[in-house]
Amino acid sequence: xxxxxxxxxxxxxxxxxxxxLVGAAVAPYAFQLGGSAPADTENAAKQAFDADExxxxxxxESGDVTMDSNAEPKTVLIDVGHENDVSESxxxxxVDALVANGHQVKYLTREDAQRDFxxxxxxxxxxxxxxxxQPYTGDQLAGLRSFEDxxxxxxxxxxxxxxxxxxxxxxxxxSVSTGAVGGDAGLTSDYGVSFGSSSxxxxxxxxxxxxxxxxxxxxxxxxxxxxDEVVFRDAAPLSVSADSVSPALVSGGETRVESIRKTxxxxxxxxxxxxxxxxxxxxxxxxxxxxxxxxVLVGNLADxxxxxxxESGAPAPAxxxxxxxPGSAPGQGTAxxxx
Length: 339
Fold this sequence. Notes:
Blueprint: H1 3-34, H2 41-49, E1 75-79, H3 92-100, E2 104-108, H4 110-122, E3 126-130, H5 138-149, E4 153-157, H6 168-171, E5 173-177, E6 190-195, E7 200-201, E8 206-207, E9 209-217, E10 230-232, E11 238-240, E12 246-251, E13 256-257, E14 267-271, E15 275-278, H7 294-305
Parallel strand pairs: 1-2, 1-3, 3-4, 4-15
Antiparallel strand pairs: 5-6, 6-11, 7-13, 8-9, 9-10, 9-12, 12-14, 14-15
Helix pairs in contact: 3-7, 4-5
């Protein structure tokens, strides 16, 4: 090889090496600017399953709790006499709506319940039970049945059994006779509703976290009029065993029961002519009452409570043999037992 050719080959080699080195140096920046870098599958997988990267978008919180009913003033009695796991503030949206529409709200204290349960019911048009942790006596259940048979309205609300507590609604089946309605004695029938003691959850469709399940109306009931979707933060499934009570709200099809992991839609609210049962009480609280259509549900519950026309004098005074002394009234405005 001549000296000239040797020099030319050296120059070509040096230029090629330089291009390779420059290309290697600028390649990462070129990928960033051009957006055509190869997929980083490791990071993508990490992001897909990194819980910190999952951000749930909450639904709208708006609206007011309003009532459609123009019923004459009624008295709603809230039970706090059975070690109920509920505080006054927990029910404030419901109480405010009733009072704003001219109705009276009273609390049944433990002393009232022990002294004259029937007498307290006799002065009320509706009775609200939330998370009782002390069982009702046989005489009290008989008085409540007479109250409901006479046209009184009863609302039963119960959360799943929580650690360290015992929910009476989660342990017993509430069975109430509906009595004759509208003058047709032949329509008298019995119904039963039981509250599950385990929570519902949904990993596919939830509000903020999987324990807050959505529920939508089932059929047409007054309780769900105007409701498209509600949120229950700690829902218990209900079992309905009679034709006279209708499911009112049902969870999504991928909902599971915590204890058995079985998937399916679950009834979380039911209604008959005189009784409403809801497997959640948290939706009444101020922090939940305005999520989704919860404020509509609270307003409909208030309308239900004043919708009856209870016979005067019912239930009758308890007999001396069955216990209870007639006469005393429940404590108006008495602070309920703290949760």
